[in-house]
Design brief:
elongated
Length: 93
Amino acid sequence: MDTISQTTAVIRQRGQLTIPDKIRATFPWLIENAVVVLETLPNEGIIVKPYHSSGLNLAQKWQKAWEAIQLSRSFKGKRGNLSEFVVKDRQNH
C-alpha cells in the first residue's frame, strides 16, 4: 500500500480520533456522523473506509435519526420540555 500523504493525530479519551482537515478535505465521505469500516492489518496498521450497505446511504440515515432525537428533545407541551421531564424522572428513580 502506497502512502500518498501523511500527518499525525492524537487519540483522545475514550478512543476518539480527530481526522485532520487536510485529510477530511481529500475524501468527501469523511463528514460528521459518517459510518466507517475499520480494518486491521497484520503489521499493526488500520484502514478506515466508508461503509456501504446495499447502496443505502447510512450517513443520511444517521442524520435523520439525530434530527428525530433533536426534535424529541425540543418538544414542549403543556407541562414543559420532554428532555427535562426525562432527566427529572431518571433522577427520581
